[in-house]
Amino acid sequence: MSYYEPYSELSGAAKEFDRVIQSLIEELDAINLYNQRADVTKDESVKALMLHNRNEEIEHAVMLFESLRRVTPEFDAQMKTYVFTSLPITEVEENATGGSGQQGSSSSGSGSLGIGSLKNK
Ligand SMILES: [Fe+2]
Q: What pLDDT, on a 0 to 100 scale, did the predictor assign at position 107?
């Protein structure tokens, strides 16, 4: 868990954002653990169960990404740029930014996630 201190100063929206982000971290960690257990087990029935559970966690993680996309215009813009593309990812970035590394069509126009800078925290 990583919290800005004092947590009580965070807005309601930032706390909700944090809940989703922390849940996503937990789902990604679970995906990784189930995948590793499936990889090493010698028991095919255990392997099948680990892969089943991993895939359930993938569903949960994607649901959380979608939740973030719906409330965070920057997630929406980046997902529209990168998700379900087939070019090499760096080429997608070059196409989106004209090689500058900066997208010109951010929904908010600020390039900020709206959650405040983490510099010097
Ligand atoms: Fe889950």
A: 41
Q: CA distances (Å), 60 to each of 7, 16, 39, 47, 56, in order?
A: 26, 17, 21, 20, 6
Please indicate, yes or no, if residue 75 is contained in any of the structural domains.
Answer: yes
Report how many domains make up the chain: 1
Distance CA 15, CA 6 (A): 12
| Domain coverage including residue 76 | 7-97
Give a yes or no: residue 111 inside a domain: no
Average pLDDT over the chain, rounded to an integer: 86
Residue 48 counted as domain residue: yes
Question: Per-residue pLDDT for 57 more than 80?
Answer: yes
CA of 118 to the centre of ligand 1 (A): 28
Residue 74 covered by a domain: yes
In this structure, which residues have their CB less than 5 angstroms from ion ligand 1? Answer: 27, 57, 60
Cα(29) to ligand 1 centroid in Å equals: 10
How far, in Å, is the centroid of ligand 1 from the Cα of 72? 22
Q: How far is the CA of 19 from the centre of ligand 1 (A)?
A: 14
